[in-house]
Amino acid sequence: MTSHTALSAAAIRRLLPHRYPILLVDRVLELEPGRRLVSVKAVTCNEPCYARLGPDAGDEELAYPATLLVESWIQSAGVLGGSADVAVQPGDDRVMLAGALNGVEFHRRVYPGDLVRHEVELSRAIGETLLFEGSSSVGDEAVVTFDRCVVAYRPAAQLRVPPVTRAP
Description:
The chain has about 170 residues and is α+β, with helices and mostly antiparallel strands. It has helices spanning about 10-15, 60, 65-80, 155-160, and strands at about 25-30, 35-40, 95-105, 115-125, 130-140, 140-155.
C-alpha cells in the first residue's frame, strides 16, 4: 500500500470486511502505513443501538455503548494493520482476529452528536501478530485509552467450523 494522508469511506470498505450496521469507521484522516493512523467515528441518533429507545430516553440511555467504542477503535487498528507488511492482499484468505486488550481505561461517555477521534499506533509486529496502542477522544477530552491491543492474522480455512454431517 502506498502512503496516504487520508482514506475515504470507499477505501475503508476495501480494507475491512465490516458492513452496516457494524462498520464503525467513517473516515481515516491520517495514515502512515505500518506506523500510525487517525480516524473518526461520528455518533448519531440513527445508530442501530438507539433504535429501541423511546422519545423520553435520558442521557444514560443515550450513552454510546463502550463495546461499540472499542470495536470502532479496533476496526481503525485493522485499517492500519491492512497497511502493514502482513496486510491481507486481494484474494488472500486470512482473517484479522482481535486477541487481547490490556490497560483499557474509559474516561468519559460518548453521546449522539460527538465526533470520536481514534489514534492508533502499531507498536510492534511479530510475524502475523500485531501490537497496537492508542486512544480515542472527543474534542480535547480523552474518552478511552488502550495500552495494548493484540491482533493476529490467521487463514480463514483454519477458523471455519466443518459442517455437521448427519447419519442416515
